[in-house]
UniProtKB/TrEMBL annotation:
GO terms for molecular function: carboxy-lyase activity; hydrolase activity. Coiled coil: none annotated. This is Putative TIM-barrel fold metal-dependent hydrolase. It comes from Amycolatopsis thermoflava. Keywords: Hydrolase, Lyase.
Amino acid sequence: MSVEASPAVHGPAASDVTGAVVDVDIHENMPNLKVLLPYMEPQWQRHITDYGWAGVRSDYPYWPPTAGTGGIRMDAHPDTGGPAGSDLGLMRAQLLDRHDIGMGVLTGQHHFSGMRGWYEFAAAVASAYNDWQIEHWLERDPRLRGSVQIACQEPEAAAREIDRVGGHPRMVQVFLPMITHMPPVGDSFYRPVLDAMQRNGLQLALHVGQATKTPFGYHRYYVEWHSALPQAGMSELISLIFNGTFERYPELNVLLLEVGFTWVPHLMSRLDQQYRELRVEVPWVKRLPSEYLRERVKVTTQPMEQMSLHQLHKYLELMETDEMICFSSDYPHFDFDAPERVVPAGLPEDVKRKIMRENALSFYGVGA
């Protein structure tokens, strides 16, 4: 059974995106939690004003030692105060204008789906954040696109939130963190969420975060945990493919953020081999897993690994496509990647355009 897609169109035509670069991972932030109060009912406001809620928390044990402000660029804090990513003017100067970003997709810094307990409050905060994001970001710069933030712990409520704001023309995707204490995203638990995405013509963005653990939990050192993050992306894709998600939702496409791309050839080979041996277990999977990956999944450059032109060509050859990789800066995090430094010198211009712009426009359905 497949779910019928919505004909909804989000965003402009490709000709209206004038900058050379599309950045699919920009982390905007709130100056403080009180900015959400105008968008919340009184019973939820009290959690911030009276009860001292200080934001989403996890048992994440460390911050990267290379940045003394919790993984953030030191120069990204506005002079007026507040956290990095909270000032649109500074973001314009440091990212949008400086690097010729024609379209930038906001992904936030608060993973409401990672909250344990208080699910109704989590849903209320996510809803308030969406309204705040629209008013203070999407409606203030035509280059920006938004992610619908949800609390997926209650899938039906999350679906209602997607229906509420998903039709906004500047919303292009639903954002889900890769939460390892929740089922993987191909599980039937998420069907109300995926149904709502399909109704609203939105894509799915999966992002690692503090709630993303390795199979062994949190390692002793940050470098261990950070190195292992692609494992979470692999697990999510395995779940989506073998649970038949791409067959059930024929218009669904998936973007993996902050896990790089060099692991993709291995996953393609491994899944195809396993499918040939064990496909009797999953008769709803109609094609080789590598075909779903090439056609329905995008991955991102960040964190970009140092490589030669020859090495990049080899990865693209093994993936058998140059249409999977999208540029992402990860602004304003400490390992920010500037677009001018991402691809090695000598890359053919047509391939460079795909990575820096065209693959993302295709993913979001920004037509010619």
